[in-house]
Write a structure and sequence with these properties.
single chain; 8% strand; alpha+beta
Length: 492
């Protein structure tokens, strides 16, 4: 059943605004929240009475570099609240015209009502439902096709949104800016400098827009008789012959091209069935899990070492995270967490994606008056600042703040030089007056006449404004005053 429009709007503003789409919200430290971003605040930002810049310029985004397991960064974005409000309200107002995105069963990550208030959660890739569905689709077939869209979200063409939602002919005959589908096109452009190419990775508004396009492609291919599933931009089709598999690839490429999207030829393959539904490393690691319900030290270390060996052969897989989550799902014998932590911290030095799991290990370790891992966290933050990794810096600073470890001057200086927005905000929140003053001076040193530069730091600037350290940096808009008057705070 498709979510109602009231749920959709709350989700877009309060639960799926920040880039937190993984099941356990591992992208950002939990100090960042948008639950206070109310519908009333969004309506005021989008209201006729609100003072705002010339919208033809659009707004820029806060960038957040998330590190993949192979160390390649993935750029996530946090749009400015004003264009995000326009876009979210437009989606809510026209949800009846967009609801087809929620009914498309070919898509495995479509808009749904989740218990935590989110509309989009990427939780399907290792579920039992995936195995069952794959078996049903593969029955009686001889070949499987695996392919994906090349650079999907950054390649979305905004004018393709009207083409998808109302059809090519109707969209081209009705170009009036008052048409709802043209407003949707306009507001998605507003979130990224009014550019027609690319949508932000992170907010669920972008998922709805991409689904609006890709659901039309799905409908055409399903009508042609192809059986397949799609995980965001990743396709898995099942065919009775190799000719049929090649035809699927051709037709998919043709349909995507109509919306200015391209297949990733390097990641396109046709393989004979049967095929495993899980990667080999998952099966290998799962078979090596400790057998006892309470994990002992030697079993824990042996399992983790096995995971390290497998990870070396599978650098693009989430092997170590899978292994650590497997251990954390069990009870530990006394002292296991303390015994594991040095090794876990060492592995985290090489894979920042493991950082979100550290808190659970820290909480299982022996409680002492002094937190024992401050030096390691400083080393992690320093290394990630050198590599300009937002996630590595943010999570390390978050833990230093959480466990009340003072941030050393050398690290603070290193973070300051990265100019990374969320890391600077966490440095400001560390509680040390000197570091706070450094961040305030940094904010005052930005070019306040350059709206795009201000937008790239809007969440930091808003916190400083909220705390009374700076005035409104935007001379021609009152978004910060509106948010403050509505009690909105983006940090917990």
């Amino acid at each position: 059943m498709a979510p109602d429009k009231a749920f959709v709007l709350r989700a877009l503003l309060q639960h799926n605004y920040l880039p937190v789409q993984k099941k356990d919200r591992e992208e950002l430290p939990p100090i960042f929240k948008t639950t206070s971003f109310s519908i009333a605040a969004a309506k005021k930002l989008a209201g006729q009475g609100a003072k705002r810049r010339s919208p033809e310029l659009g707004w820029d985004v806060v960038d957040y570099k998330s590190t993949k397991f192979n160390s390649i960064p993935r750029l996530l974005s946090i749009p400015h609240p004003t264009p995000h409000s326009f876009l979210s309200l437009c989606i809510e107002e026209n949800w009846e015209n967009l609801k087809y995105t929620a009914h498309n069963e070919i898509s495995l990550v479509r808009p749904r009502e989740h218990a935590d208030g989110r509309l989009v959660i990427m939780d399907y890739d290792r579920s039992l439902k995936k195995i069952t569905n794959s078996a049903k689709l593969a029955f009686g077939k001889r070949f499987a096709v695996h392919t994906d869209i090349s650079n999907c979200f950054p390649s979305v063409y905004s004018h393709a949104i009207p083409w998808a939602t109302v059809g090519f002919s109707h969209a081209k005959k009705n170009r009036a800016p008052t048409e709802w589908f043209n407003k949707l096109d306009k507001y998605i452009r507003w979130t990224k400098r009014n550019e027609t190419q690319g949508i932000a990775i992170g907010p669920a508004t972008s998922n709805i827009v991409s689904e609006a396009i890709l659901a039309r492609v799905d409908k055409k291919l399903a009508t042609d008789g192809f059986e397949y599933v799609r995980y965001i931009d990743d396709y898995k089709a099942y065919c009775q012959s190799e000719d049929c598999a090649q035809e699927f690839i051709r037709k998919l490429a043709d349909e995507l091209a109509k919306f200015k999207l391209l297949l990733n030829i390097k990641k396109t393959s046709v393989n004979s069935l049967p095929q495993p539904t899980s990667d080999e490393w998952i099966v290998d690691l799962a078979s090596s899990r400790p057998s006892r319900s309470t994990v002992e030290q030697y079993d824990a270390h042996d399992f983790l070492e096995r995971a390290v060996l497998i990870a070396r052969k599978n650098p693009e897989g989430s092997v170590l995270k899978y292994a650590l989550k497997t251990l954390l799902s069990r009870k530990f014998e006394l002292g296991v967490a303390d015994s594991l932590l040095p090794r876990v911290l060492e592995l985290t030095f090489h894979q920042p994606a493991l950082l979100p799991l550290l808190e659970r290990f820290f909480n299982r370790a022996f409680k002492t008056k002094r937190f024992l891992y401050g030096h390691s966290l400083h080393a992690l933050a320093s290394e990630n600042s050198k590599l300009r990794r937002s996630d590595g810096m943010c999570w390390s600073l978050y833990y230093l703040n959480l466990y009340k470890v003072p941030v050393e001057t050398e690290l603070a200086d290193s973070v300051l030089h990265t100019r990374d927005c969320l890391s600077l905000l966490l440095l400001y929140l560390s509680g040390l007056e000197a570091h706070r003053d450094w961040v305030i001076d940094f904010a005052k040193g930005l070019d306040w006449s350059d709206h795009y530069e201000l937008d790239q730091y809007w969440i930091l600037l808003y916190q400083l404004f909220l705390d009374g350290h700076i005035g409104n940096p935007y001379a021609d808009e009152d978004a910060f005053e509106v948010l403050k008057s509505e009690g909105v705070n983006f940090t917990k």
